[in-house]
Amino acid sequence: MELIPSSGGAFEISVNGKKIYSKWETDQFPDHKEVINQLESIKNYGS
Fold it and tell me: Is the full-model pTM beyond 0.85?
């Protein structure tokens, strides 16, 4: 995992180079359940 500092309100979540969430695109922060669901989907897909 890597945290990449930014400025201007950027907030994006990427897993293995694949973007799973972007505040730039949605103009809002994600609900934590949304992020957890995305991560579980990636984990289950890779199993």
Answer: no
